[in-house]
Specification:
Length: about 120
């Protein structure tokens, strides 16, 4: 014995339509990430930026965007402190996730977000 609820077919069609739209948006994000990576790889500072600890393709591209591609956008080298997400542990203490107080906020990811994204 089976039972059908009123509006069940309409709800199934709506879920199907929404799922297709979400899948399309996910594909657009993946394509944009590939385009960003390709453009970033063409930049003359790609090797230097990605050699920094914790700097991946997306975070490196965000760094270039925040600085306009020029290091002169930062007043001093001290403003780079806190950009690379490295632990500041000493001795037996681990998990010390304090942030530097002197850094450029435009290139620092918001608190609680991963420092870099992986390819989709």
């Amino acid at each position: 014995m089976s039972c059908a609820l009123p509006g069940e077919k309409l709800a199934a069609e709506l879920v199907h339509t929404l799922a297709k739209e979400v899948m399309g948006l996910n594909q657009q994000v993946a394509d944009l990430d590939k385009d960003i990576e390709a453009r970033f790889r063409d930049h003359h500072a790609f090797g230097v930026i990605t050699s920094l600890p914790g700097m991946g393709v997306i975070l490196g591209a965000e760094f270039l965007t925040a600085t306009g591609g020029e290091m002169t956008a930062l007043d001093t080298a001290d403003r780079l402190a806190g950009v690379a997400p490295v632990p500041r542990d000493s001795g037996k203490i681990s998990g010390n996730l304090r942030r530097s107080q002197r850094y450029n906020r435009r290139v620092q990811p918001p608190v609680g977000t991963p420092a870099r994204r992986t390819a989709l």
